[in-house]
Amino acid sequence: MQKILVTTDFSTPSKAGLRFAVRLAAQMNAELIFFHCFQALIPTAVQRERIENPLQRQTADHLRKLEKFVAGVYRSLKTSPGAYRCVVVEDLNPGKAILEHARRLEAGFICISTRGAGGLGKILGTHTSSLLHKSPLPVLVVPHTYRIRQIKKVLYASDIENLETEMQIVCRLTGSMGVRTDLAHFYYLNELKPDPKTLAALWQRQFDCLDQVYLDRLDGNFAIQMNRLIEKIKPAVVVFFTHTNKNWFDRMFAASMSEAFSFMTNVPLLVYRKTSGSD
Predict the structure, then answer these.
(1) What domains, with CATH codes, occur in the chain?
(2) What pLDDT digit, counting tens, does each position of 186-218 carry?
(3) C-alpha torsion 165→168→173→174, nearest 10
């Protein structure tokens, strides 16, 4: 069974990630691992041999809080829980702890919520930004404004540098979810050969999971065109593959960061790390 590690700090914005993960897990028949990392409050004067008991008590307290928090999310969704478990760890570095436990628990995805309005750091949050750049696992970034709805369509936004490999990954994902797959690529003048209509027809024959193909000439602002397309087709998730040796957000959205934020705060993003062959 596929596993999704869902992080929470018990904040209201983090509930969005839980709500989305519950819906996604139901469609994928996946197990949810609700994960919370805390920093222990240990008085510096306490001797080393006396630290263990306070830490155990704090861990137990946080676990009870997490279980109550998760139960509240399920009640608000008016849905019966599927397979899930709650995990609490103490660590001074939450980002590192998330990655270590995702690997240890054999999670297939990490799900984390954005924080809110403002600059890049405020929208994504420090831990989210770090995970996007460091995680070998795909990361689901869920807007704090997300409202539960059925997942019917996934949009794969591609640079078509490694299309066949990436489409196989996307097709496996959408196949497990039982949803449609659309592909979008924005190109510069005279970049596509053969022409867009021929390519779209070719890819639709090549990839069984592919429904619609959107090939549009880039007008200089990737974010604005993405927003227009998302508004038009209303995907439940947008999939990207990022280069590990580049600052993805700077590269993709440098023309208009504020425009980029408008879709980052309206639709969940699923971010995969590109393979070494396509970096």
Answers:
(1) 3-142 (3.40.50.620), 153-278 (3.40.50.620)
(2) 888 777 777 888 999 999 999 999 999 999 988
(3) 130
